[in-house]
Design a protein that fits this description.
It contains 33 helices and 21 strands. It is of the alpha/beta class and 788 residues long. A hairpin with a 2-residue loop joins strand 3 and strand 4. Strands 1, 2, 5, 6, 7, 8, 9, 10, 14 and 15 form a 10-stranded mixed sheet that branches. Strands 18-17-16-19-20-21 form a 6-stranded parallel sheet, with helices on both faces. Strands 11-13-12 form a 3-stranded antiparallel sheet. Helix 14 packs across helix 15 and helix 22 packs parallel to helix 23. The chain is globular, with a radius of gyration of 27 Å. It folds into 2 domains: 331 residues, Glycogen Phosphorylase B (Rossmann fold, 3-Layer(aba) Sandwich), CATH 3.40.50; 329 residues, 3-Layer(aba) Sandwich (Rossmann fold). The structure holds pyridoxal-5'-phosphate. The site of pyridoxal-5'-phosphate (PLP) has 12 residues, from helix 7, helix 24 and helix 25. Keywords: Allosteric enzyme, Carbohydrate metabolism, Cytoplasm, Glycosyltransferase, Pyridoxal phosphate, Transferase. GO terms for molecular function: glycogen phosphorylase activity; pyridoxal phosphate binding. It catalyses: [(1->4)-alpha-D-glucosyl](n) + phosphate = [(1->4)-alpha-D-glucosyl](n-1) + alpha-D-glucose 1-phosphate. Its cofactor is pyridoxal 5'-phosphate. Its EC number is 2.4.1.1.
Length: 788
């Protein structure tokens, strides 16, 4: 035998497939192939493995997770890990002289916006890993959330062309396309199926993303008459529906497009289910809710409720009395926010002009609701908070609660707020519907995959059971007083900081030191998340160091990662402000070597995977009562960072698990905020606190420039004068400033005793078991989906 044949014989089937694919498709050997070619070959060969078990769970109840976004990140890395092919891939590449990180250069993060989409992705992973038949349904946007860059400190957006390297993980199912109708327009919804591979590869579920296409590709007749633009018009109009995630909805045209998107994927997914159901049971729909559970991820897919009613009544000949109980038994709704502006409402006029055929069924739901209210003795004005339609608006959250058998919040405090305020009247009407399901994250992505060093260490100590049963991390607590364990743990953190520093050097062109304390705030930019409070605090520390007011300060790297919505002017102002602070500090030799601020470019899942393992302080500083749950707080915790945060969202449960002493909690609690809201006087605070005043004044006193945009003045006014829709300092930055600063500096001091500080980090990691999405998904399964 030649050595070539010998080598081939030793290869796994997967490795042979990679080689064959390269040869057949590109006529190349591995050593000659470029990154894109390798990416396609590895993906294709892995797809062969995934297909073996794909769609095996045909029997029994199927859970359908309807979501406008699935923020899965890079598909290739997660899929290889779950198929158990990551090592084989690395080995194959290494033996052929190729750096395994080539795959990281290809494929951008698919396909969402923030926490809600990432949660959907974690759920898919957990369900598949634990053998639950759960499929995702959404939209195959051509462009995801924009790609972010900075120009002179201002955010710039460009299209996220995530498909530019091709899409080897999807299978187009032309044969399963369905038709979706709008007023004056009909389109095809063509499904693209992505395998959702559970850890170990035994269960492979499906993420089905719909793409909008014209009924008629191209009008040959019009083209022939030299009407070139007209020949493509229908195609462009159809493709616009699945063109971008969250199109700007400042205008009426933008709102119309969003509603179209929601109806598009809701209707297509329901048609798909109804068709499959009929194939099994024929025309008797009485078993529908035994066959399918549909989870509505926020209000975006809630139009599904009247749409299924329409299909049942208009097309399947059922009466309302027959159809509605089945519908209610099928749907469940997850609320993700207490922000009033995010509880969707559509104008009746718009709704009727886009999907008049569905509007009739919204009215029917409203009539049925009114009857139910009357039976409970709720009449006249008392009906107002329930109305699905009140004069000019359709309230999607109300429709969701009425049409579902279960409604859940995403952390204990959040569910309590739903019951006590946001959906208070509904809770009084149907308390049995309300449940809590505290969010979670998948440890396969957020530890096993992103932090190999820590994963190996944990497995060494307690075995690998934690990969599918995160509770087992608790066994690590045993070693909390073992100096050798803590030393190794600290060493791993240190190495991960170096890895991040190298990455930052490469992609940002900025040198940072792993000797600094790494303090990270990474999440979407929003006023309620209070990146501006973080910025004020950093500026105050800067002045404090210069004046010698702060002694014994541990050198700190303050990292921010955040995208601001393109139309959110104040959020963009905060980005510019932080970059101005960074510039000031960079340019001042007096603080060099003691602090550094950096706003990372294009924060997304892939960046998060680099950040979590290296972070030491996790900034979770939202105003109490505003962050529904948060999930980045869990990712940081799992990777051994302490939380510097408020009593908000899941922070409360994190502290409950890991101990208040092992975290840094500050600020007003929700009860206090509720109490002082009416009489709150931020101007007084500002006037009586010179340090706070100096930080706030930097927005307008010439310390920094916003390039004449007026951004900084607007931020200043929002704090001290209020804005059109809110009171001054709506998010209580000034209120929490002192206690934040004090707590932050305490954490910073304690870091100087590494044994003490790393023990806290370690205990956070060891107590993160509760925050696995495996636990969350099991609760949904037992308490919502199998509930009949
Ligand atoms: C986890 C995650 C989020 C959610 O962060 P929160 O701090 O919980 O809002 C947002 N974006 C990305 C890329 C994430 O991975």
């Amino acid at each position: 035998m030649t050595s070539e044949t010998e080598k081939r014989n030793k290869m796994s089937q997967f490795q042979k497939d990679v080689i064959s694919f390269l040869r057949l498709q590109y006529g190349k050997a591995l050593a000659e192939a470029d990154a894109t070619e390798i990416y396609h070959s590895v993906s294709a060969a892995a797809m062969c493995q995934a297909r073996k078990n794909w769609g095996r769970l045909e029997e029994g109840k199927k859970v359908c997770y309807f979501s406008a976004e699935f923020l899965v990140g890079r598909l290739v890395s997660g899929n290889l890990v779950n198929l158990g092919l990551a090592d084989q891939t690395e080995e194959l590449l290494r033996e052929n002289g190729v750096d395994a990180s080539v795959l990281e250069e290809i494929e951008d993060d698919a396909l969402g916006n923030g926490g809600l989409g990432r949660l959907a992705a974690c759920f898919l992973d957990s369900a598949a890993t634990h053998g639950i038949a759960m499929n995702g349904y959404g939209i195959r946007y051509r462009y995801g959330l924009f790609r972010q860059s900075f120009e002179n400190g201002f955010q710039k957006e460009t299209a996220d062309r995530w498909l530019r390297f091709g899409d080897p993980w999807s299978v187009r199912r032309e044969d399963e396309r369905v038709r979706v109708d709008f007023k004056g327009q009909s389109v095809w919804a063509v499904p693209y199926d992505y395998p959702v591979i559970g850890y170990g590869g035994r269960t492979v579920n499906t993420m089905r993303l719909w793409q909008a296409e014209p009924m008629e590709e191209f009008r040959f007749d019009l083209f022939n008459e030299q009407k070139y633009d007209k020949a493509y018009e229908e195609r462009n109009r159809a493709e616009a529906i699945s063109a971008v995630l969250y199109p700007n909805d400042d205008t009426d045209a933008g709102k119309r497009l969003r509603l179209k998107q929601q109806y598009f994927f809701s209707s297509a997914s329901l048609r798909d289910l109804v068709k499959k159901y009929e194939g099994k049971y024929g025309g008797d729909f009485s078993h529908f809710s035994e066959e399918y559970a549909i989870q509505l991820n926020d209000t975006h897919p809630v139009v599904s409720i009247p749409e299924l009613l329409r299909i049942f009544m208009e097309e399947k000949g059922m009466s309302f009395r027959q159809a509605f109980p089945i519908i209610r038994q099928t749907f469940a709704y997850t609320n993700h926010t207490v922000m009033a502006e995010a509880l969707e409402k559509w104008s009746v006029k718009l709704f009727r002009s886009v999907i008049p055929q569905v509007y009739r069924y919204v009215m029917m739901l409203q009539r049925s609701l009114l009857k139910a209210l009357e039976q409970k003795g709720i009449t006249g004005q008392a009906q107002a908070p329930y109305l699905i339609m009140d004069g000019s608006l359709v309230h999607m959250a109300r429709m969701a609660v009425y049409g579902s058998h279960a409604v859940n919040g995403v952390a204990q405090i959040h569910t309590e707020i739903l019951k006590k305020s946001v959906l208070k009247e509904w809770y009084q009407l149907t308390p049995e519907k309300f449940q809590n399901k505290t969010n979670g994250i998948t440890q396969r992505k957020w530890l096993l995959q992103c932090n190999p060093a820590l994963s190996r260490f944990i497995t060494e100590r307690i075995g690998s059971g934690w990969i599918t049963h995160l509770d087992q991390l608790k066994k690590m607590e045993r070693f909390q007083n073992d100096p050798e364990t803590l030393r190794r743990f600290g060493e791993i953190k240190r190495r991960n900081k170096q890895v991040l520093a190298d990455y930052i050097e490469k992609v940002e062109g900025v040198t940072v030191s792993p000797d600094f304390l790494f303090d990270v705030q990474a999440k979407r930019l929003h006023e309620y998340k209070r990146q501006l409070l973080n910025a004020f605090s950093i500026l105050d520390i800067y002045y404090g160091l210069k004046e010698g007011r702060i002694a014994g300060f541990t050198p700190t790297l303050f990292l921010f990662g955040a995208k601001a919505a393109p139309g959110y002017f104040r959020a963009k102002g905060i980005i510019k402000y932080i970059s101005e602070i960074a510039k000031l500090i960079d340019g001042d030799p007096a603080v060099r070597g003691r602090m550094q601020v950096l706003f990372l470019t294009n924060y997304g899942v892939s960046y998060a995977e680099k950040l979590m393992p290296a972070a030491e302080i996790s900034e979770q500083i939202s105003t109490a009562g505003t962050e529904a749950s948060g999930t980045s707080n869990m990712k940081f915790m799992l990777n051994g960072a302490v939380t510097l945060g408020t009593y908000d969202g899941a922070n409360i449960e994190i502290v409950e698990q890991a101990g208040e002493d092992n975290n840094y909690i500050f600020g007003a609690r929700i009860e206090e905020i509720e109490k002082i809201r009416e009489s709150y006087d931020p101007v007084k605070l500002y006037q009586s606190n010179p340090r706070l005043r100096r930080a706030v004044d930097s927005l307008v006193d010439g310390t920094f420039s916003d390039g004449g945009t007026g951004m900084f003045r607007e931020l200043y006014d929002a704090l001290l004068k209020g804005a059109s829709w809110h009171q001054p300092d709506h998010y209580f930055l000034l209120k929490d400033f002192d206690s934040y600063q004090e707590t932050r500096l305490r954490a910073n001091r304690e870091y100087q005793n590494p044994e003490l500080f790393y023990r806290k980090c370690y205990l956070n990691m060891a107590n993160a078991g509760k925050f696995s999405s495996d636990r969350t998904i099991r609760q949904y399964y037992e308490e919502i989906w199998s509930n009949r």
